[in-house]
Known about the structure:
The protein has six helices and two strands; from the N terminus they run αββααααα. It is mainly alpha-helical. It has one domain (32-122). Strands 1-2 form a two-stranded antiparallel sheet. A hairpin with a 2-residue loop joins strand 1 and strand 2 (19-22). Helix 2 (36-48) packs across helix 3. The longest helix has 27 residues, at 62-88.
Amino acid sequence: MEKTIFEKICGEFERQGDYFIPCLALPPEKEQPIGLFGRQHLDYLKQYCKVTYTNLLTSGRLNAYLADIDRQAQERFERLIEGMKQAQGITEQLKEENALEWTGRLGNIRACAREIVNEEIIYT
């Protein structure tokens, strides 16, 4: 029997019931840790950008892409927090004098910074 084009380029088939399915595997990818922002972007890709998700997954670049997005988002988040703390005058002195107010104001800043990062990086 003549080989198919797939078999000519070293492809193999696996029989499942009455069908022959090509044995395909994703290219190996270096595992990198992905934080909260990377996982949020992964969920966004899966739900709203299925073509981009599939292209990244099948090319073996998904993990590196998500790790990069996570790193960018984390750096932006930290820069925003520092800038907002300076703009609002939140200092270590306030922390010593009124810890409860310092905690509330810092929590507000973190929430605002998270919203900005989500809008600029994660959900785009």
